[in-house]
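Bit of a strange request maybe. I'm writing a small parser for structure token strings and I need a real example to test against, not something I typed by hand. Could someone generate the tokens for this chain?
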Amino acid sequence: MNKLSDSTVKNKYIIRISLISSVILSIISWGYVLFESRYSLPGLFSLHTVTETKEFISKLMGFEQNLSLAYQFNSWFELRHLAFETLLMSICSIGIAGIIALTTCIFASRNFHDDTIFGYSRPLLKIVYFIVRNIYSFTRAIPELILAIILMLFLTPGIWVAAIALAIHNVGVLGKLYSECIEDMDITALKSLQSSGARGWQLLSYAVLPQLLPKFLTYLLYRWEVVIRTTVVVGLVSAAGLGREFRLSFSYFHYEDLGLLLLWYIVLVIIVDLLCSLLRQFITVRY
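Reply from user aminoacidic:
Good idea to test on real output. This should exercise your parser:
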């Protein structure tokens, strides 16, 4: 008990000594800075300091400059073709990804290699399942920017390089989502058609797609919202759309043009988000 009280007293003395030393060192440091160095305390309140501060604030507020509007409507409207290229890039990429994922997702679902959909199971179907599933995982794991850099080694820079890079990545994402939808679907209608003698594409056309098409379209619209936000980054590498001009303007310190490009980017994102929201509402009412 005595040892504990002695250690407590020692700790209190150490804390007090440390606090007093810190205060003394702070006073000495600030005293040297204010009185011994060139940053003296009287100079802080001199007329020269007040004049310099006033000029700095005036220039910062722009009172002593011949100002003109940096963001003019004509300059902003001239960049509309770059915004159109970016929008076209996103539509092409999500369209390609949607078509490929829709036509291959059935091979990546577990229902494909058992007897749920076709009524029979074969080892070859299981091999195809693993191949397609691994392709989805591989394409989904590589970022769009890396894919664009790789494609630049083989293709001419432009819209299609960015569109293909975005499409390859989104094939893996959409394919996984679509295949999981098929695995979780209600198989009541499927079994009814099987008992009636339907086989193969008849089951896909009359049992699988009618049930899952609203989910497929919803996921497609969601990925389009993501893609429109990624087009600028991919365009930096593939020299297409707003991304190309963004890189050039940033390299030459044309910050006015950067502001205009960012404004177009925001407009595109808002337009696509609103359009996807309307389309989702239509799908909900329609189906």
